TrEMBL record:
Assigned EC number: 3.1.-.-
GO molecular function, a single term: ligase activity
Enzyme class: hydrolase
Alphabetized UniProt keyword annotations: Exonuclease, Hydrolase, Ligase, Nuclease
Signal peptide, first to last residue: none
Name of the protein described by the UniProt record: Ligase-associated DNA damage response exonuclease
NCBIfam families reported in the protein's UniProt record: Xnuc_lig_assoc
């Protein structure tokens, strides 16, 4: 029995008659997390893990018909028992476990196996079939400990502050920006944020995640002495816009898993690249797949073929699964 199949609308559970992260509007949508390529507008009913409800409402509208379900709480629908389990990717991100007539499938959504302090840590879930993302599914992708990366960011910021120039750090507005805020040493100087970042900070704070005080960047203007020591967090789309003019002579950087690739930093045209990802690296993917105990693995997002070949050589039944994920966060290599 296939508990999840690919349909034009998205990943579909035939016995349960619902979709997981559909990319076209459907009646019942189970949402793994609120990144734009997984959570879209227009569905009639939404089901999501409780810690992600605030973000979903902030992004899709307060009026969506959303049923929150706490992690680990089973919900039965047409004989299918569904539960959410932490995916460690962003606040509220969940793996979806489906059990039906003794068969267990898990759809991972996006996941990261290392804990980061801004969301519940990834929890391995045993299953027969595991649908895994594979954004960074190549052996070259190995992340450093996040404490080292934050130390690098702090050192860059400190050096810029000593030289009296603002440090502009580009990062995705939901997830990455809050992780950076949580990890940096806010005693170095004031922290300014773009208008796309602050509403998400507020949802994180309301969920009990400790973030330093942030000021709207628009409260400053060119020549403001505050800017000389400031760290500025902005979404990638702000780069090159008129919004940047107030910073005068600044240093800029980009935080993303793709910064491991020299070419990606050059194409971005930034001074520094910090390799910080909210996705599992190659050892993380292999660890999660092993921990699931699955005999069958379906691979979505990114470097599908390399991971499928690797798992097949190790005796697993592995195959590619066609999806339309990967238009937000680290899922797409930054260009422009
Ligand atoms: Zn994501
Ligand atoms: Zn994704």
């Amino acid at each position: 029995m296939e508990l999840i199949v690919a349909r034009p609308e998205g990943l579909y559970c035939p016995p349960g008659d619902f979709y997981i992260d559909p990319w076209r509007p459907v009646d019942r949508a189970v949402i793994t997390h609120a990144h734009g390529d997984h959570a879209r507008r227009g569905n009639r009913h939404y089901l999501a893990a409780t810690p992600g409800a605030g973000i979903l409402r902030a992004r899709l509208g307060e009026d969506i018909d959303l049923q929150p379900l706490p992690y680990g709480t089973p919900l039965e629908h047409h004989g299918v028992t569904l539960s959410f389990h932490p995916a460690g990717h962003v606040l509220g991100s969940a793996q979806v476990r489906l059990a039906y007539r003794g068969e267990v499938w898990v759809a991972s959504g996006d996941y990261k196996v290392g804990p980061d302090g801004t969301c519940e840590a990834f929890e391995p879930v045993r299953c027969h079939t595991f649908i895994s993302e594979s954004t960074f599914g190549l052996p070259i992708y190995r992340w450093q400990d996040q404490a080292c990366i934050f130390a690098d960011i702090d050192a860059w910021w400190r050096a810029n502050a000593a030289a009296g120039r603002p440090s502009v750090l580009f990062a995705y507005a939901f997830g990455k920006a809050q992780r950076i805020l949580h990890g940096i040493d806010a005693s170095i100087g004031p922290v300014l944020v773009h208008g796309a970042v602050e509403p998400l900070n507020q949802v994180y704070r309301a969920a009990g995640v400790r973030l330093p005080e942030t000021l709207p960047a628009t409260a400053t203007s060119k020549g403001d002495p505050l800017l000389r020591q400031a760290l500025v967090l902005a979404p990638p789309s702000a780069g090159g816009s008129t919004w940047m003019r107030r910073f005068g002579d600044y240093s800029d950087a980009f935080a993303s898993g793709w910064m491991l690739l020299r070419g990606a930093r050059r194409r971005r045209g930034v001074d520094r690249g910090f390799v910080l990802s909210d996705h599992a690296d190659w050892p993380g993917l292999l660890w999660a797949i092993e921990q699931s105990g699955a005999e069958r693995v379906m691979v979505t997002h990114g470097q599908v073929n390399v991971l499928v070949r690797y798992l097949t050589e190790r005796g697993l039944d592995a195959r590619a699964f066609q999806t339309e994920y990967g238009e937000e966060d680290d899922s797409l290599e930054p260009t422009n």
